[in-house]
Amino acid sequence: MVKEHEIARDAGLPTHRADCPELPFPVRAAVHLDEQLQIDPMPVLRALADEIRSHGGQIIEGVRVRRVSSDRNRQLVHTDNGTLSTESVVLATGTPVLDRGGYFARVHAMRSYAAAFEVDGEIPRQMYLGADEPSVSLRTVPRRDGPGDLLLVGGFGHEVGRARSEQQHVDEMLGWTDRWFPGARRVARWSAQDYESFDQLPYVGRLLPGTERLLVATGFAKWGLSNGVAAALALAGRLLGGHQEWAEPFRPWRNSELFSLPSAARANTQVGVQLFAGYTQLVRPSDPNPAEGHGVVGRHGLRPRGTCTVDGETTSVVPVCTHLLGALRWNDAEHTWDCPLHGSRFDRRGEVLEGPATRPLPTP
């Protein structure tokens, strides 16, 4: 924490060492940054959408992009509902839905959880982010059904598809909250997927060297409210012919990546390990009737089969990721099929929830 405080001060940030008397647990050290803003992102998104429409822009939802090709000076965006022709394309899709540039191997996908609680008595009024493991964040959110605030607890993340039990991570979050805020009553729960580069900086700019009309923004590493805004400014400037010097460290093809090659090599070695381990599970006979909330993978005859039971309905899919053929695993917290290779996720019927996959799972 001391080192982080020193680096922040050197960068010009108004940080200072602080105590945290309002927290119910002991804190060894803390760094406080002045003038931070706590917001509800949904009104911001609605305002941005209204501004886009006021300038004649269109927002189309529920249509999946399958691929992007080039025709002379035009970019062709191929979707389920037809093909669009445009001068420029920005891939701001969590992780890029195009494999060009190998971004699926340059970021790793993380899943984390959050819940809102009613708490009797006082709750912490500041925003907090823990530096230990498991990392925990705290903030408040206004109640919609009356005065006062709810306590929002988040964290307890893991790599997608690699947890022994996702529900265990959720239970740890609930147990942590009950320990430090006894009697807290959960009123809502969320989960999120984030992508981190190996040097912890986002990729913002050209998808490939020399491609000025096909741009990318990914790897925000859970800092979307700041990195997303920075990415928007950098990409808008590039599309309008400008250049922001401050955005240079975010270039997708930056020399600093050389220093993160050992981390990238270790991570992609783990991808190979996960690929092998997953396929060893597919050689076992599959259970045709798993218990409620459970999913199993195995084989039915010679074909792989993933079967789950949710809300009394038993469904089966081919549990092989349509991106790069990773063997999928059942997520017992969210009732989804998750890929441990690059983070693709599918609902219980095989529809795509998270990329880089763009095609649904086939049925057996």
UniProtKB/TrEMBL annotation:
The keyword ATP-binding does not apply. Keywords: 2Fe-2S, Iron, Iron-sulfur, Metal-binding. Residues 280-364 form the Rieske domain. It holds the Pfam family DAO. One of its GO terms (cellular component) is cytoplasm. One of its GO terms (molecular function) is 2 iron, 2 sulfur cluster binding. InterPro entries: FAD-dep_OxRdtase, FAD/NAD-bd_sf, Rieske_2Fe-2S, Rieske_2Fe-2S_sf. This is Putative oxidoreductase.
